[in-house]
Amino acid sequence: MSTVAVDVTQVVELACRAPSVHNTQPWRWRFDGRAVELRADHARQLRVSDPAGRNLVISCGAALHHALVAAAGLGFTASVARLPDPGDPDLLARVELRPDRRPTPADTSLLEALRDRRTDRRRFTSWPVPEEQLVTLAEHASRRGARVLPLTGVTARRTVERLIDRAVAAQVAEPALAEEQRAWTTASPTGGIPASSLPPQDHPEERRDRFERRTPRAMADARVVASDQVLAFCTARDDTAARLDVGETLSSVWLRAQQIGLSLVPLSQVIEVEPTRRALRHDVFLDMAEPQLLARVGWLELHRHPLPATPRRPLTDVLDLAPGS
Ligand SMILES: Cc1cc2nc3c(=O)[nH]c(=O)nc-3n(C[C@H](O)[C@H](O)[C@H](O)COP(=O)(O)O)c2cc1C
Hints:
By secondary structure, the chain is an alpha+beta fold. The chain has helices spanning 3-15, 54-73, 105-116, 131-141, 154-172, 175-184, 216-221, 240-259, 269-272, 274-283, 315-318, and strands spanning 27-31, 35-40, 77-82, 91-98, 147-150, 229-235, 263-267, 290-298, 319-321.
């Protein structure tokens, strides 16, 4: 293997630290000596909760942005072609890498944020998130096609909370969905969500997430709490390119949040359930934007213990190196 291929391997390994729905890591990579290709891996698709592959492509978009952050931090200039082959829609991106960049302090800081990022589902503190921080995050996102809209209005917040409750109730009532979720929260050394990343069941007051065993009473309490802020990731269209943008934007906003000490937790259930996605689109966005993902944002306790990193598939399962590269 050439020294460039060794460094590219590192880029891909860091890209695979990206968040993905249920930690499915639904991606494959190939390096041909000049460029890395990113492909959707439908064998890892959540057939019940994500039949259209929305969360799958968003996850791959996050991995693409992670790859660009890793490339810059490791001294590569990257040029990206998104969806480069109309005849091959699973080929999501082709990234040419040239080992000629001198990483800036900003590149290094972002790479550090990538390494430290976790989905931390512990309950946020009640410290308010100043509106200007939210605006900064939203502006950070607007460089790509997806928009990030802070949902600060009381009416929108109430509607969102009601729709989240409806989505959770719909999913709890569907046995195939519960089964799919159980399969991805059962311990595996290479994927899924380990118990160590979920706040303990015996402290229900610390739980604000979909993996809680919910009684109808607990479900009614499982709202986004008042001091949490909610961000909506939206696009103008609802196709693969838009979803890829959302994933890149999610990663970009999440790493920025990490840098300023804010925690971000995606909330995708309201989008996964078609009637609540349509209601959100209509009631909150007046049919003028396609909501693709929600996330809650807030401050965690300062003196919390850090969460362990969730596992990833071995690189040999996800990366092909062309012979001679
Ligand atoms: C598209 C997408 C949807 C997600 N939806 C949720 C969700 O509804 N609830 C949740 O707690 N985490 C959600 N997550 C976070 C993943 O579970 C998390 O990224 C994965 O388990 C890997 O863990 P890590 O982020 O700590 O590396 C989502 C992530 C992505 C990319």
